[in-house]
Specification:
The complex is a heterodimer of chains A (about 270) and B (about 190). Chain A has about 270 residues and is of the alpha/beta class. Chain A contains nine helices and 13 strands. In chain A, β10 and β11 (about 225-235) form a beta hairpin. With about 190 residues, chain B is of the alpha/beta class. Chain B has a single domain (about 5-185), classed as Rossmann fold, CATH 3.40.50.300. Helix content of chain B is about 45%, strand content about 20%. In chain B, strands 4-3-2-5-6-1-7 form a seven-stranded parallel beta sheet, sandwiched between helices. The chains are: A alpha/beta (about 270), B alpha/beta (about 190). The interface between A and B is medium-sized, with 17 and 19 residues.
């Protein structure tokens, strides 16, 4: 009897190879865009303008991870953690128990700074301060066993570093130990739009060191603001590079491809 | 074919025949009443549905449907009108879209609502394509209808694109014809 021919499935990833283990965001559209999630241990720059949904996305990433039994950590740089906690209550997908059980940990950078004694009047970190801060982050991740981390925002931290070389060094060192611990991280980057061009960061350094860049913004369509998301790069996974529309719903973030004709012709990316 | 009864029976035949996307052409004079009657007929046949309204607030359509004494427990609305005009926006079975330019929100909201539908046979009634054409350029609208139609085909939800005969230009009509399995009401 002739041997039955079996059709091999077509592989869509031209690189072939073995895929990396993924950190599933459990945000349906995002996991689809990222072909299953963020490769474990990656540092992703979540760059976007004001009101584009960066903090909400990052929070849902942490909350979903905590619900799945992971230990997650949010480091608040720009606002007190108490304010962040009260904002969290407004999300339908948030559960107080996650904080009580230690699955979702929220830290205030100013408190960490005070404890380390690194808060300076001129607001600039010295090399010694930088080492102390990196050490503090490492301790948090190591001691708590954190597998998902968000720093909101890395821009505010970078403002306290003296030059671009220090920023590069800081993020590189941060990514080294986070990757070693298998901690998947989102660094929130506040961006601005200049002459209709949106950059990935204020200092132009962060995106080069990060493993992934997710760009979030607002599109103007006939005067209305639409939130958009686009994965620019993500090391270790094949991913979509199309621009998507996101909406904040009571059950979390919802993602859908943006209409192609609905984003050109006088519609600026702001 | 002109009467609403004939249109409704053609729709039922189309559903039973395995179609998934149809364009329904109705004259302006009886458009609103006929559309409500068609929805009522489908609900009475135990289909569950999502009614997308771009031309009238959902509260008005709901009130008219309630008058028909049809069971509305498996009917949900996506309303693109009420928020724009400052109407009632508190109905628990309705998802409100901020602006009729936010076409992608319709797709998102269908995804959210289809999970709530209990019936095995489901429909989406898009009332109306002409209502959207007021706010969106023709090429954007055509792209949206194409995405909507194919998305509903994948979800196997029977979709009706309601159009007002007198207000549909040739270009839009031919785009709808190309996309649809059938045009009813010609």
């Amino acid at each position: 009897m002739a041997k039955k021919e079996v059709t091999k499935p077509i592989t869509l990833d031209p690189r072939g190879g073995r895929p990396r283990d993924k950190c599933v965001t459990y945000i349906e559209g995002i996991d689809r865009i990222l072909n299953g999630g963020i490769p474990i241990g990656n540092i992703t720059l979540l760059a976007g303008t004001v009101g584009s949904g960066k903090t909400t996305l990052a929070m849902e990433f942490l909350i979903n991870g905590a619900k799945a039994g992971e230990t997650c950590c949010y480091i608040s740089v720009t606002e007190p953690s108490s304010k962040m906690l009260s904002n969290l209550q407004t999300y339908g997908f948030f559960d107080d128990a996650l904080v009580k059980e230690g699955k979702l940990n929220i830290f205030d950078l100013t408190v960490i700074n005070d404890r380390l004694g690194v808060e300076r009047l001129d607001g600039t970190y010295t090399a010694k301060d930088m080492e102390a801060l990196l050490g503090a982050f490492e301790d948090i991740v190591d001691e708590l066993g954190v597998t998902r981390l968000v720093i909101d925002s890395i821009t505010a931290v970078c403002y306290q570093l003296p030059d671009k070389g220090s920023i590069r060094n800081f993020i590189f060192r941060l990514s080294q130990f986070l990757s070693t611990f298998g901690c998947t991280t989102m660094l929130i980057s506040e961006t601005v739009v200049d002459s209709n061009v949106q950059t990935y960061s204020i200092f132009g350094v962060e995106e080069a060191v990060a493993d992934g860049v997710v760009l979030m913004g607002n599109i103007i369509r006939q005067g209305d603001l639409l939130r958009s998301l686009q994965v620019v790069k993500m090391r270790g996974t094949k991913h979509s590079r199309a621009r998507h529309l996101i909406e904040l719903t009571p059950i979390g973030l919802a993602v859908v491809p943006l209409l192609k004709w609905g984003q050109d012709g006088g519609q600026a990316f702001t | 074919m002109s009467g609403v009864k004939e249109i409704a029976s053609a729709i039922i035949k189309s559903i039973n025949g395995g179609d998934t996307l149809t364009t329904i052409r109705i004259g302006a004079e009886s458009f609103h009443t006929d559309t409500v009657k068609i929805a009522s007929v489908l609900l009475s046949k135990k289909l569950g549905g999502i009614y997308i309204t771009t031309s009238r607030p959902s509260s008005h359509i709901l009130a008219e449907l309630e008058e028909t004494k049809t069971d509305l427990s498996d009917l949900y609305f996506i309303d693109l009108v009420s928020m724009t005009v400052g109407g009632k926006t508190d109905d628990p079975r309705t998802l409100y879209v901020e602006s009729p330019t936010m076409l992608e929100s319709i797709l998102l909201n269908i995804s959210l609502l289809e999970r709530r539908l209990k019936a095995k046979k489901r429909f989406v009634m898009f009332d109306s394509v002409n209502g959207l054409s007021i706010y969106s350029e023709a090429r954007v609208l055509k792209e949206f209808i194409n995405v909507l139609g194919n998305s509903m085909r994948i979800k196997e939800i029977y979709s009706m694109l309601m159009t007002v005969k007198e207000q549909t230009d040739e270009e839009l009509a031919s785009a709808l014809q190309l996309l649809s399995d059938r045009v009813i009401g010609e």
